[in-house]
TrEMBL record:
Entry keywords, A to Z: Eye lens protein, Repeat
Similarity annotation: Belongs to the beta/gamma-crystallin family.
SMART domains: XTALbg (SM00247)
Pfam families, per database record: Crystall (PF00030)
BP terms from Gene Ontology: lens development in camera-type eye; visual perception
One term of GO molecular function: structural constituent of eye lens
Function statement: Crystallins are the dominant structural components of the vertebrate eye lens.
Gene3D superfamilies: Crystallins
Protein name per UniProt: Gamma-crystallin M3-like
InterPro entries for the chain: Beta/Gamma-Crystallin, Beta/gamma_crystallin, G_crystallin-like
Domain Beta/gamma crystallin 'Greek key': residue ranges: 2-40, 41-83, 130-174
Length: 179
């Protein structure tokens, strides 16, 4: 089991709420979130209820100020623990929506889709094995999106809710991942 603790104020002060699993609406437990302790597990925290809005990947550690986990604001409204994956990682990425354009099979981290695969961007994918974090910019920067196994025909299905969003780098979520 994983464990994450949310604090309303910076430096682990103020009202706190401890969570051990998936929660689609944290609003009843705290008003804002300015610091977090991840005591165990890998987590995605979301700006809006029902796993929507900006997403942030957090692994075991202490985050004393929301800006240190790349927070755009102090609003955290849902979270989910990412299951530990012990097998191989495999995903097919596509240049265009609905699995169109160039296709490449990926089994490892990629710091630049454009440089490695000569694709300007990725707009759809099929995650066959493992759990991944996708980034809007090269070098694992910018907005993040968590993808678990499944087919994603466009960026809306990936949870971005924005047709203009494109991904330019990706990283596997494993116990030895260097985030």
């Amino acid at each position: 089991m994983g464990k994450i603790i949310f604090y309303e104020d910076r430096n682990f002060q103020g009202h706190s709420y401890e969570c051990g699993g998936e929660c689609s609406d944290l609003h009843a437990h705290f008003r804002r979130c300015n610091s977090i302790k991840v005591e165990s597990g890998n987590w995605m925290v979301y700006e809006r209820p029902s796993y929507m809005g900006y997403q942030y990947f957090l692994k075991e550690g202490e985050f004393s100020d929301y800006q240190r986990w790349m927070g755009f604001n102090d609003c955290v409204r849902s979270c989910r623990m990412i299951p530990q994956h012990m097998g191989q990682f495999r995903m097919r990425i596509y240049e265009k929506e609905n699995f169109g354009g160039q296709m490449h099979e990926v089994m490892e981290d990629c710091d630049s889709i454009q440089e490695r695969y000569h694709m300007p961007e990725m707009q759809s994918c099929n995650v066959m094995d493992g759990h991944w974090v996708m980034y809007e910019q090269p070098q694992f920067r910018g907005m993040q999106t968590y993808l678990r196994p499944g087919e994603y025909r466009n960026t809306r299905e990936m949870g971005m809710g924005n047709d203009e969003m494109r991904f330019q780098s990706m990283r596997r979520i494993s116990s030895d991942a260097a985030f």
